[in-house]
Amino acid sequence: MNKKIASVPNEEVSFSSDFVACRPGDGGCDELDERLSHSWLRVGIAAVFAGQGMALSLALSMTPPEFGTGAYWILHGGLAFSALAVMLFLGGALFRATFAMARERRLSIEGLFCLSLLGAFFGSLAGSLTGSGTVYYEVVSIVVAIYTVGRMLGERSQARALTERDRLRERFDQAEVRRDSKWEWVGLEAISPGDRVRVGPGTAFAVDGQVLSGEGYVRETAMTGEPLPVVRRVGDWVKAGTWSMDGDFEVAVSASTGARELDVILQKVGSFGGRPSEMQALANRLIAWFLPVVAGTSGLTALYWALAAGWVDAVLNSMAVLLVACPCALGLATPVAVWQSLFRLAKLGLVSRDGALVDALAETQHIFFDKTGTLSEGVFRVTEFWLDPHWRERRQELCDTIYGVEARLEHPVARSLVAYLEEDCPDGGAACEGLRLVPGKGVAANTSIGRIQIGECDLCPEIDPMAAQLQLRETSGKRVYVFLEGRLVALAVLQERLREGISGLLRELNELGVEVSVLTGDSNPEISLPENVALEAGCSAEEKEQVVRAAVQAGARPLVVGDGINDVSAMSAAVASISMRSGAPLAQSTAAAVVTDDRIACLPGAILLSRSTRQRLRGNLYYAAGYNLFGMGLAATGFLHPVIAAVL
Known about the structure:
21 helices, Rossmann fold, alpha+beta, elongated, 48% helix, six-stranded antiparallel beta sheet, Calcium-transporting ATPase, cytoplasmic transduction domain A, single chain, seven-stranded mixed beta sheet
């Protein structure tokens, strides 16, 4: 088997476009892209036939030919063929859903769509064959298009999440295992608990297990929320989905394929779908009584007019009942209002194609935030820099040396130190030789001013740093020690930085009556939050999910805002979720929306906008039910022509 290494992750992973045109087998499209291409191709072909039908309908309205002539049959035949073509290309899903509804003895909006569609087609067909009344085949295209496009957009969101889930799993599906006194790369299906796995610097852990040998920094941010790499040594536990930064490890496998914590998280993606929003629940309740009323009224209308005036009037009036009952408020007016709201949300900085997000934002009573990468930037800044008094006159020389060493590293601590010293070292720092990573402790190098070591205090265990620490103003934060020839010469304090505007965000959410909690895997979060914000530290992915599910059961309609793999389970369990633009691809594809430029301060405005939209939509639903009932009464009594019913 070819060796495949999952290296330290690049947080920016590109997505293919939402609307793509792929040639199967060209190597540039995945299965989802090809499926989307085929679906949109069908929509395009159906649109051509729908346009043809509308053109023929316009011609029929402007210069109606005499019944029975060749022109009459050509125009009416073309209209009927166009409607049938649209149903052929796009109606399959609607008819299957309606059949499933009937088989399961339940009522749904698909049934109402199907009744309206069939009413439009057969009513028009009766008019064409008899020459009585006006035809309205184009209504078929409108009804099918409304249903199909809405369904495809919903399926796309779920399919994208499942695709990203599979891609992530594939990144951790091989490991280097000890076999017959040699190391070889094998697939996870060939690995059993108790096997020995080797993981080198810059390589991903593909298994859960216990360290047998080795020591070094492990980056666990995506799985645990720890903002900085943590030291793992013999006896510690490591997880699949984390990365060795600088150490060589041997790990005893503790979990078989499918039982890793990463597998448990990935299995949750897509498994919590289908939880209706308040507006969906209201629409479902309306459909539950409205659909039988429509079907019953249409049937009684047909029976009455068949006895009173003949079958032509019976068909026309009963079809008028079905047409006026077309669920335009649910299938057209409501989606238009939701899409308008999504457009306005995008202008605020919250991008989504999921209309359920509007409901979720309007209904939520509790928002759960992740800390690292969500409330905080995931970047540490130096808040204090202590120098040995003997080096204060040579500060520039020492800073150049520290910068020259750290600029050669990709460790988050190194990047923070480089950012802090950048203005003081415009020339790029001093040269160094013999740079060596000390796994789990830091870095050492030879410089013009001597042997320098930067990192943990146990790089020089014989040095007691307490005297230096007592002179610091900061009582919290990550300490980074600088030793020169075995002497402590500098000490930096790094602290996590909250995003700009977080205090105002939390205050505004509280004023809107939304409870706020922070769930973090960081066991020692050193951030300052308002007293009314609950902070739960050291949470595993499963614990985050349990907290969110409890909120769902309590009726709080929780919303989760996160960015990491360890947030995915909680995001899937929530009513809706939001991901940071800088978040993991799996988190972005799982979420209902992505915050552009990571500006989560837009949330209060998004909630106010969504509440306004919900109030307007609720009124529209009741209004639509009322005028549909009134229109059905007129249609049943023969006072409403099918053409007017179609317009309504």
